[in-house]
Amino acid sequence: MRNLSVFFLSFVLLFSFCSQPQPQEQPDVVRVRLAAEPHTLSPINFSDAAGMQINNLLFQSLLGPDLADGQLKPVLAKSMPHIEQKDAVTYITYEIREEARWANGTAVTSDDVAFTLKVLKAPLLQNEHIKPQVAFIRDLLPDKANNRKFTFVCDGFTPEMELLSGDFFILPAYLYDPEQQLKNIPVAAFSDSLSKLENNDYLKAYAARFNTPVYNNSGKILQGSAGYLLEEWIPGQSVMLRRKENWWGNNLEISNLTANPERIIFHVIPDNTTAILSLKNQQLDVLSDIPALDFDELKQNQGVLKDYNLHTPDSYAAIYTGLNSRLPKFKDKRTRQAIAHLLDTENIIKVTQQSYATPTVGIVPPAVTEYYNTGLKPYKYDITKAKQLLEQAGWQQRSKGWYKTIDGKEQQLTITAIYKAGNNVVETTALIFKDSAGKLGIPVQVEAQESGLFSQNSRNHTFELFFRPINGNPFAFNFKPILHTSYAALGGTNYTGFGNAATDKLLDDINKASDKKEKAALLKQLQVVMQDEATFLTLYYQKERIAIHNRFQNTKVSGLQPTYDVSAFMLKK
Amino acid sequence: MRASLLVKKFLSALVLVWLMLSAVFMLSRMLPGTFGEEKMLQSQEGFYSQSNHTSRAAAYNELLKRTRQDLPVFYFSLAPINLQHNTGYSYLVPDPEWHGLHNQYHFWLNDLLQGNLGTSFVNAKPVTIVIREAGTTTLVISFVSLALTIAIALGAGIWMVQDTGKKLRKPLLATLVVLDSMPLFVFSLLLLLLLANPDAWQVFPVFGLGISLPGSEHIWLSQAPYLILPVFCLTLNNVPYLTNQFYNYLSGTLQAGYIRTARAKGLPSGQVVTKHALKNALLPVITVLSDMLPALVAGTVVIETIFAIPGLGRLLVSSVLARDFPVIIGVMVLVAIVKMFSNILADIAYATTDPRIGRRAA
């Protein structure tokens, strides 16, 4: 009996010790879940979504998407750039906002942009992840009369140059290069052969300092022109940001320049179950990427609904099927169309996305209403129609399957469907397709391939059919790299072999079109052609699944990553 | 145990550690892919191209050069066997290529001998700091859990072989079998859903180690509630196996002649077990305990992921995924050293438990 009493007493003591109040919410602090910790917070060498999201709160780029309307807008730049093409050179001119200030109160100037370009392009520095993105910028010409104005000199022209020229974080030269070791090396020198620079003593000395941990994780260095400062990074646990006092952007009242919450805390919680429990326990204010089944459960939970708003914006992430049209058995488009009719998209969405997805007629996301072709209907799962098309394409059905004589040799219609190993969504998609095709007597072999092998097989055209994701956006529609025949050679990114002279012209015209109406007409035409060709079959666009505490408004929930703008969050009055 | 013997054991353990780390070094370099390869060379498909393949490949080569991954892995390499272009059996004769001292292994070993584990590829931090940051919590969880596991297993083992525990022995052994067959992640999640859930019992904090906002007081003790559930889960994972071992060895020892003599002398049952049987039953258990390290490390991977606790387990997994070779090897160095010391401690414990072993070894 005495033992029992001691046990009971210990139990009560333990529980009362542990049941101390959980970390309570503070009104103006936003707590966000990160599924994985950023590897680095270096604004020029981050390589993951978390690094990107946090850097966006510390640093600013010249241009950036406004999540409120999905439009590309000026951030550090005063306005959208002026673009001029002369022969094989493009000149992109920007002017920085005169109000823009660094953390020490000094103005952001074209010298900072020039310095940033040098750091991005220099050899020896930890900049390899972003360096290829600015390879097209050869030089920067500062405006002699205005130290906030400058022109990028770029090689050739592609429509995304406008976006790419404004899509890197600008660094403060005073903080990153206090000894001005890079000042006397011109920007153009970083575009020529880099071997000379590798022996430059100033650059070597700068690299020795730059490639140290403080440039990756210290709040003393990671200070940009955005509204937040890095307060503390506890490895493996959390990243804490604090709003700058009297930040310059708050005086402008521009919708995409915000720093509202006083503090933002990113908690690293790798496991989904733990993250959902934390949400139920009110230890998180924002949880995104919620698994579909858990999201349905949250929708039924009154405790959660009382405190949280659940959102499902249309994303720009899609799953598509690619057919290798170079293979003789898939040469006839009626064969490809028959296969398209065997893709049970509705069922696939139901099983893999719990219906949190929208079927699409083509590559343009349904959320981009001005460019989406509403006149078309997505392929329906229809075995009868598939059978007719196969017969029209010359395939004959026998007891063991479908046969056709191709190049004098009888061939059976079989399909090997590949996907990147580890992606459960595409795995289930492939299995559903296998089942559907099996009903028509077409044997499908499903094969998961290791990431490197999958990419290699795609580039080398050694595949029959694949399932893979594609990420889009609402402001850039240059489909040449994935659909133009000039990218269809071995090693190119047009894996499926889509295209001919007419579609190449159409893609070129889309890139040239400056008028929105003209662009819309051309993009709608492209969707018609793509659906008819049935080589590149976009199945559906996913919906994001997000929960945000309802004490906040102006959350700017969007389909664009990171799917909400935490800097815009405002407490409800 | 004599000091000279200890030194001998230490030196032979050092050679073993070197061999083991060299094997890990070679195996890690045999993993498909290198740091940055997937992110830099296999660009995501999108509605526009952020860069062309040539500039990506050039940047990737620079990365390899900066991180010395462009160097040969070892002092020599063997040309792959090409059966198609070989006639006869000439392919059976190795065709080595000498690379000299300018190789990855040489640089790594040189640094290691100077106590330098290198810097992480992903954030340029010295590996020693990365490991220290992650290792503290893991060591606390592992050692507390190990101590609890030993105490519980020992207590339960002794209790079951005594008359007082006879009645509950069968159900307890059955329960231990059930617990032993449950994967750690299953009962970690079950306990989390039961004891850290507002829909059930909200007793423990859900994740992390707690943070304190600047200005507020942060004391070490405030982290204790966050560690109770993880330690409990890890302990529960190891208790069944160790209890079974203790129980079996104790039961076996209790059949020995000298135990019968002790009983015949009229010693109480408890004294027979603790004073006479336990010391002999501990000998095989020492081996089991010194081999528990891998299980503890494997357990912390699960525990740290589910309870969102920073630690060596999560660090090791993320380093392997990112191919951050210096950190992978660094963690293995730590594991090897701990293992080496646990073996030496086991030897000392053997000699202490049974002085004959010490005398024989000397």
From TrEMBL, chain B:
Localization annotation: Cell membrane
One biological process term in Gene Ontology: transmembrane transport
Bilayer topology: Multi-pass membrane protein
Ranges of residues in domain ABC transmembrane type-1: 135-346
Keyword Transport: yes
Any one Gene Ontology cellular component term annotated for this protein: plasma membrane
Keyword Cell membrane: yes
Primary site of residence: membrane
CDD domains: TM_PBP2
Keywords, sorted A to Z: Cell membrane, Membrane, Transmembrane, Transmembrane helix, Transport
Transmembrane regions listed in the UniProt entry: 139-161, 173-196, 292-313, 325-346
Family: Belongs to the binding-protein-dependent transport system permease family.
Protein name per the record: ABC transporter permease
Organism: Pontibacter burrus
